[in-house]
Amino acid sequence: MGPLLRTVELFYDVLSPYSWLGFEVLCRYQNIWNINLQLRPSLIGGIMKDSGNKPPGLLPRKGQYMANDIKLLRHHFQIPIQFPKDFFSVIIEKGSLSAMRFLTAVSLEHPEMLEKASRELWMRVWSRVKFSSEIPIQYHAAAEKAGMSAEQAQGLLEKISTPKVKNQLKETTEAACRYGAFGLPITVAHVDGQTHMIFGSDRMELLAFLLGKLKIQH
Amino acid sequence: MGPLLRTVELFYDVLSPYSWLGFEVLCRYQNIWNINLQLRPSLIGGIMKDSGNKPPGLLPRKGQYMANDIKLLRHHFQIPIQFPKDFFSVIIEKGSLSAMRFLTAVSLEHPEMLEKASRELWMRVWSRVKFSSEIPIQYHAAAEKAGMSAEQAQGLLEKISTPKVKNQLKETTEAACRYGAFGLPITVAHVDGQTHMIFGSDRMELLAFLLGKLKIQH
C-alpha cells in the first residue's frame, strides 16, 4: 500500500491575520506533506460569540503585541502582511460577514479559485492594497485578480445573499465550533483515524509531527 | 571581533505550563545559540491583573483545548508535562505567590541552582510528582532534589517572607509588564541594540530567526 493522502481542513476568516499565516504555510506545504488540503471559509464573529471569547486586539497590551508580532512574522514567513492603520474601523467595526459569504460563494461555484480569491482578500485587508468601502467594487477587483471573468465575478456577487451561501457559511462556522474553536484559524488534521484540532498559525511543526504518522499514546 | 554573547531573559511562573515548555527549549538551546540566558521568576497573577487579561483556562473551550494541546506537546517536546487532575484547586485557587517567592529567594541566594529548582517545582505542579499542600515539605523536597543541602533549603524557606525577596519578585513582575506582558512566559531578546519581546512558547523559530543577526526593517 502507498502512503495515505491525509485530509487537513483549514477554517479561516480574512479578518484574522494569523489565519493568513496558517493559510500560506499550508498552501506551501500541501504537496511536500502530501495532504488533501480543504479550505473552509468561516465567520470569526460567530465563533467568538459561540465560545464566549473576545478578539485579542481589544485588550490594549495584546493589541500592541500583535502589531509588533506581525511586523516580525512578516519577515520570518515572507508574507507581505501589515497591520492596517485604521485597524478598528477595518477590522472591528466592519466585520467580515460579506467577505466570508463571498468566499463561501466562490467555494461553492468555483472551488478551484478559492485559494487565490482568499489571498486577494487578505491582500486587501492586511496588506498594501487598500480595502475599499465600496463592497461590490472590492470583490470585483479581488475576483478578477484571482483569475475570474467579469461575468463570473458578477455571478458570485449575486449569490452572496442567497440562502444556500448563507447556510453554508453558518454550517462551516458551526463545524469549527464543534471541533472546539474559540478563534481562528484552526487546522483539523485527520490522521490514522484520529482527529487533531490545532489552534493558530504557530503549531505548524506540531502538525508536521502529527503527519509523521507517529501514534500518540493516550 | 568574535560573535557577541546576546542576552535573552525568560520571565516565567511555575503555574504556567507554556512557561515550562519555553524554559526547557531555552535551557536546551542556550549553548547552541550562544546566548546568555537570564531566568526571571515572575508572578503571573500580577501580570494578569496589571494587563486586564484573564487566565486562558477560565474559558471552557480554551481550557479543553489546552488539555489536548499539552497532551500533544508532551510528545513533541519530550517534556513529561501533564494536566493536573485537580486543575482548579492546584492552579487557580492555590496560586503561585509562595512558589515564586521561593524561586526568587533561590535566584538571590543560589542563582546557580535556579534552573534545577524551577524544574523541580514544575515537576510537582505539572507532572507526576504530587503537589503537596504542606508548603514547607514541598519546597524542602524540591530544593534537595535540585542539589541543595537541608541547611540551604531551610535558609531559603526562612527568606521567603523577607522584604528583599518580596520586593525582588514585585520588581521582576513589573519589569515583565513594562516589556508588554499580558501573560507568561515572555522571552525578551536583546539583539544588536534592539529589544524584542516574544510571548508564549511557540515562537522559538522566530527567536532563532532574530538571533540570526538579521536586521529587521521597520
From TrEMBL, chains A, B:
Q: Where are the transmembrane segments?
A: none
GO molecular function term, any single one: glutathione transferase activity
Q: What is this protein called?
A: Glutathione S-transferase kappa
Which organism does this record belong to? Macaca mulatta (Rhesus macaque)
**What are the GO BP annotations of this UniProt entry?**
glutathione metabolic process
Catalytic activity field: RX + glutathione = an S-substituted glutathione + a halide anion + H(+)
Please tell me whether the keyword Nucleus is annotated for this protein.
Answer: no
One Pfam family recorded for the sequence? DSBA
Report which gene this protein is encoded by.
GSTK1
